[in-house]
Amino acid sequence: MEKRVLVLNLDHSPVAVVSPQKAIVLLMLEKANCLSVYELLQIRTVSRSFEYPAVICLNNYKNIPFRGVLLNRVNLFRRDRGECQYCGSRRQLTIDHVIPRSKGGKSNWTNLTTACHRCNVLKGDKSPEQAGLTIQTQPFKPTLAHFLSEYAERQAEEWLPFLNSRLVQ
């Protein structure tokens, strides 16, 4: 698996994650500076060899309107680490409304959680307390930095110094 490159805005806020090829193009066009590289990795072309960038910073501030992390099935399962928030199972995952829609619950980050089919059927149209279930992690609205730091812990520890200050936001 190829390593990805974290792109930071001029104020060091995360903007994107790009391929190493895209990062090299930004560096060659002097649109970005390299802040960190993956040790012992190189990108080779026919005529040149480049250090493998891990984190780059844009030279000009890009005013990118960020509307938050998109609420969808993939991101919800990612936030909940791909496990049922009631029993910890990783099988037959579904989306559960903590406060059922029939009782006025909304479809938003703080009311949706990942549940296995068994727990979702058991809970039915009740609150977790009424169904005798306990939520392991309270639903929350994740930030981009939350997802990026999760990726960094698994794949790119070189990113962590650039993300740690953003986790509290």
Features:
6 strands, two-stranded antiparallel sheet, 4-stranded mixed sheet, 2 domains, 5 helices, elongated, DNA Binding (I), subunit A, alpha+beta, 169 residues
Largest sheet: 4 strands, mixed
The overall pLDDT, averaged over residues, is 89
Count of helical stretches? 5
| CA-based gyration radius | 20 Å
Question: What is the N-to-C order of secondary-structure elements (H for helix, E for strand)?
Answer: EEHEEHEEHHH
Protein name: 5-methylcytosine-specific restriction endonuclease McrA
Keywords: Endonuclease, Hydrolase, Nuclease
InterPro entries: HNH, HNH_nuc, NA-targeting_endonuclease
Domain HNH nuclease: 71-121
Please characterize this protein's 3D structure.
This protein has 169 residues and is of the alpha+beta class. The protein folds into two domains: 5-65 and 143-166, no CATH class; 69-142, DNA Binding (I), subunit A (Orthogonal Bundle). It is 23% helix and 25% strand. It has five helices and six strands; from the N terminus they run ββαββαββααα. The strands form two sheets. A four-stranded mixed sheet has the order 2-1-4-3, covered by helices on one side. The longest helix is centred in the last third of the chain and has 12 residues, at 144-155. It is elongated and about 65 Å long. The two termini are 30 Å apart. The model has no long low-confidence stretch (mean pLDDT 89).
